[in-house]
Amino acid sequence: MTDTAEPLNPLRLPLQGERLIEASAGTGKTFTIAALYLRLLLGLGGNAAFPRPLSVEELLVVTFTEAATAELRGRIRANIHELRIACLRQTTDNPLYASLLEEIADKQQAAQWLLLAERQMDEASVFTIHGFCQRMLSLNAFESGMLFEQQLIEDESVLRYQACADFWRRHCYPLSRDIAEAVHALWKGPEELLRAIDRYLQGEAPVIKSPPPADETLASRHEKIVGKIAALKQKWNESVGEIEAIIENSGIDRRKFNRGNQSKWIEKVSAWAQEETRGYQLPDALEKFSQRFLIERTKADGIVPEHPLFVAIESLLAEPLTLNDLMITRAMTEIREAVSREKRRRGELGFDDMLSRLDAALCSENGEALACAIRTRFPVAMIDEFQDTDPQQYRIFRRIWRQQPDTALLLIGDPKQAIYAFRGADIFTYMKARSEVEAHYTLDTNWRSSPGMVQSVNALFSRMDTAFMFREIPFQPVKFAAKNSSLRFEFNGVTQPAMNFWLLDGEGCGVADYQNAMAQHCAAQIRDWLSAGARGEALLWKENESAPVKASDITVLVRSRQEASLIRDALTLLNIPSVYLSNRDSVFETLEAQEMLWLLQAVLSPERESTLRSALASAMLGLNARDIDALNNDEAAWDAVVEEFVHYRERWQKRGVMAMVRELMAKRHLAENMLATAGGERRLTDILHISELLQEAGTQLESEHALVRWLAQQIADPNSNASSQQMRLESDKHLVQIVTIHKSKGLEYPLVWLPFIANYRVQDQAFYHDRESFDAVLDLSKAESSVELAEAERLAEDLRLLYVALTRSVWHCSLGVAPLFRRRGDKSGESDFHLSALGRLIQLGEPKDAAGLRQCIESLCGEHVALHIPSPPDNSRWQMPDWRESELEARQILRTIADDWRVTSYSGLQQHGQSIAQDLMPKLDIDAAGAGSVPVEPALTPHQFPRGASPGTFLHSLFEELDFTQPVSDEWVLKMLQSGGYDAQWQPVLTEWIRAILHAPLTAEGLSLSQLTAKDKQVEMEFYLPIASPLRADALDAVIREYDPLSAGCPPLNFRQVQGMLKGFIDLVFRHEGRYYLLDYKSNWLGENSEAYTQQAMASAMQMHRYDLQYQLYTLALHRYLRHRIADYRYEEHFGGVIYLFLRGVDAADPRSGIFSTRPHAALIEKMDNLFAANTEEVA
Q: How far apart are CA 1079 and CA 1136, in angstroms?
């Protein structure tokens, strides 16, 4: 494979074989993954496509954290959904979807496939690396030799400590005193030993360079060291008398090796040589007599003092006189074996075990069968964040997918962002993979940052050919996105450069001075930004819109907790609120945990005065010295507090510790008091978190006292690796964020400060990677060559951290720089700044003094990069802006508080009083609701048909479905009776009854319902009649009384004033000979036979139920409708009248029975129209 990477086109990338995609920061890695995912789902890409479409269960995506897995799954689901919608609409504004749409032949089929994929996303194969390994082991249990039932453990630290303690007991307890003292000088106990080797107990074990012989023991090593020291002492005692003369007669430079010091050194070494040898400590003076030291102190042309003693001293000083390598080598091996043995015994599996088990299974005799089974299940694998992989993980991927037909292995990551070496990530694995893949590609456009930020980062990292130390990790400049060309940061009316170097003035400074000064400058600059933002003078521009800078726009990136603490203190000093975003702190390390312990002890024993006093004095309860003194001098008040805590104890015993804490907080207003103080939200968050953990632990423990002991133990030995203990974030809204560079990876922030970026940690471990085999190597002798290799790796990782930090900002980044000295002594001349990542890039790896550093930065400066030499900052505090919002007050309402706008109905208007309940009643024949049912008589007639609301509704429904022109079918009547729940014996009666109604003459001309075709009638005609201005009952009542004699005999209308809509349903509207009629069916029971349905009886019923108002309103509605629909409409000519059909009274023998007809006066309808209309056009 060539080293040249070609720009990636996600739509044309060949989806077969091994492909490496290098995605620089902000270049759209997640977007690319989603695009490739969609192509694989639909089989798109022409010749570059995968041979067949894949389901979401066949498409493996592996990433390295649960959070990344959830984010990726959500992003993919959203993209599938959006592309499906685009397929259905066959158009989209999204360029990616538009390109994919062009390739999709059958968009409906694609939409169906995408819908299926969207529904299956919960089963999609998006896993963490550990989740993938666990799934493969369990699904292929026989091939992998995995037990079916194994418990997954999150944290192995307890097991490792137990194994280390066993190792310590086994090897150190039997030691003789002098050997034990030598071990104790290295580690005080098993805890210290474990801290020294814990890193090497996780993942694969490193190769030990020059390991001690397998048969060597602590005793034999001790004897060997003591023997060498004793031999030198003997030589010294034998030769000490000769060395003064030899040195005196040589060319030694007495300015560097004066006679006074010489005598003192000889005296000290002689005293040591006379002592019995117990420890391995050599006197400092011994070095002065080594051959190398004497050569360095000899004049250029002088005779070098020589003696076998000097050579022997130099040889002894070069020897590692220590038990360190022997102890660590043995401990690493035995502790690993002990932990593994214990996990097997318990049936437990750690995260690292899942990788090693799958790795071992793939390398076993069943390995090919297992690899084939995994390949068959997942033909395509996409590995996200591949730069964070380790050798074991890559071996697994390589074994399954490398050089396999009809598969694809897509490795996606950015080697410039490989910053997790402390978690086992291995950049050398990436380099190896880079040399093995078929092709590799780059994403070349930064979609995150402003043009200035992109160009300044390009300029900084392009200063050296090997900006990242290794040829395999080249830096390739990226382009900025056109959409970001308008991004700019304006401060006090001036557009700011994207990158600003703050250089401390002076010849040089130490780390502490640098950090303190930069923390103050950073805090002062943030204060100025915030103050200007409040005045509208610090603005973030995007296109033609600007937003004032606020606290949540500003982020300070740091390396460690100590740095975070420094900047937080500096911000607090200026009254600027901030939040430190870290998930590596245990909540049991906080003061609140200790105060909670005191509180629980007091609740358990309130009678003990000292215990209760400790709780009352805690910051949590918020009492001051005066309050506590008052309690001391008031016996009754003290007794009341004791009783209060006794009550809390009872509450704890009955309801649990959390209920008790909640009650105490409520009674003593702890939450309110804390939130009113600085840092109160952080403290309150911790208290609630601790109470939750206590409640959970309390369910596992046998007593309250056991819970107190548990809390004390957690405080004594907090475990920040346990996710449940990791501190939760308080709200970060409107706060300056302080974030570790590691935690910031993948995120973006508008404005970034890097105040301590010039600092670096000195490499003290000879842990490095072999440059040929890429194996991890640990050199316990700390040979100079090994330390140099480790130092190169340290600097390389710091460079990658610097890249991550610089690429987080969108608008602007400020960096704190100084000619930094890590060494002691004079702080002038060439500084150590070139040993930091930023210093290496600025100074091109060369040591320079303060002036040289300034020249280097000035050579970088341009349109987007600036140098600022700050003057001492002023410590004026930030005044939080007084947001003057309009006062909250209720609007003054001058009118009567009553809303008359509503949808009402005839029923609502004719009822007395309020009508809301009436308007909401279900659609039943409510006029018949009050009529009770009567026993059925032997002779069945319509008058004996059940009465009431439900039978009335049933009779209405018959005429809604009936075709009036067709004969009435017995079968249909029987079916309707059965569906209504009525006895079949009613069928003959009901059939004849319906026939009589259909043929009854409705008008003088003999018109009957049976003559009405479908085109001449409208069943259940719905209308909405606008009531444009408030309608009063008395006004409507006066109009209808004036023009309708039937209404004149009715009681006055009484309804609440209404405005809005009148809704109704007219049972039947029909047309005959050009005239329109409205008809309403009534099932009212007026008597035992048809003779009871006289015109007078029906008129009385009409008045009783206010049917007069109903037909008047219905007539008005139909009148308005006809006026809209008929061009030359006239009421007198086109409106035929109103017919009320009392169904029970219709009798074939008496044409007049049961039929009530009328025609409202034209003037009445006109006046009602005016009353309803006001100035609003009616709507039908």
A: 11
Q: Which two tokens stand for residue 144?
A: 């992998």
Report the residue count for the chain.
1180
Residue 71 φ/ψ, nearest 5 degrees = -65, -45
pLDDT of residue 354: 84
Does residue 621 contact residue 670 with C-beta atoms inside 8 Å? yes
Return the sign of the alpha-carbon dihedral for residues 506, 509, 514, 516: negative
pLDDT 10s digits, 730-763: 555 678 999 999 888 888 999 999 999 999 988 8
Using CB atoms within 10 Å of the CB of residue 585, give its burial: 0 to 12 exposed, 13 to 18 middle, 19+ buried.
middle
Percentage, residues of the chain above pLDDT 70: 92
pLDDT at 165 over 90: yes
Residue 919 burial (10 A CB sphere; 0-12, 13-18, 19+): middle
How many other β-carbons are positioned within 10 Å of the β-carbon of residue 1124?
A: 11
Q: Which of 414-423, 491-500, 650-659, 1064-1073 has the weakest average pLDDT? A: 414-423
Q: How far is CA 950 from the centre of its chain?
A: 56
How far is 548 from 556, CA to CA, in rounded Å?
A: 19
Helices (runs of H) and strands (runs of E) counted in the chain: 44, 33
Find, among 380, 433, 372, the residue nearest to 45 by Cα.
380
Q: Higher model confidence: residue 575 or residue 502?
A: 502
Q: CA geometry: angle at 1108 spanning 1102 and 1112, to 5°?
A: 155
- Categorize the per-residue pLDDT at 895 as very low, low, confident or very high, splitting at 50, 70 and 90: low
pLDDT tens, position by position, 819-860: 999 877 778 889 999 999 999 999 999 999 999 999 999 999
Is 775 in the active site?
no
pTM: 0.69
Q: Where are the alpha helices (DSSP H) in 881-985?
A: 906-910, 916-919, 949-961, 970-980
Q: What 8-state DSSP symbol labels residue 1065? A: E
Q: What is the pLDDT of residue 929?
A: 42
H runs (alpha helix) in 23-65: 29-42
- Give the CA-trace dihedral at 993, 998, 999, 1002, to 10 degrees: 120
Rounded Cα–Cα distance for residues 757 and 208 (Å): 33
Q: Which amino acid is at 104?
A: I
Closest CA to 6 of 453, 454, 437: 437
Query: Are 325 and 332 in contact, with CB atoms under 8 Å apart?
Result: no
Nearest one of 950, 981, 986 to 973, comparing CA atoms: 986
Decide if pLDDT at 885 tops 60. no
Q: For residue 504, give Cα distances in angstroms to 343, 515, 696, 812, 837.
A: 54, 11, 52, 20, 18
pLDDT digits (tens, 9 = 90+) for 458-501: 999 999 988 999 888 889 999 999 999 999 999 999 999 999 99
Q: Coil, strand or helix: which one is 106?
A: coil
Q: Which of 352, 390, 553, 1080 is catalytic?
A: 1080
CA dihedral 962, 963, 965, 971 (to 10 degrees): -60
- Supply the DSSP string of 188-232, one letter for each residue: SSHHHHHHHHGGGGSSSPPEESSPPPTT--HHHHHHHHHHHHHHH
**CA gap 754, 836 in Å, rounded:** 14
Collapsing DSSP to helix, strand or coil, 1092 comes out as helix
- Tell me the average pLDDT of the chain: 86
For residue 923, what pLDDT band results from cuts at 50, 70 and 90?
very low
Q: Tell me the three state secondary structure of residue 1158.
A: strand
φ and ψ of 778, to 5 deg: -120, 115
Q: What is the pLDDT of residues 927-948, one digit of tens each?
A: 444 444 444 445 678 888 888 7
Please, what's the b/e burial string for 384-422 (b: 16 or more CB within 10 A of its CB; e: otherwise)? bbbbbbbbbbbbbbbbbbbebeebbbbbbbbbbbbbbbe
Alpha helices by DSSP H, 913-1029:
916-919, 949-961, 970-980, 987-999
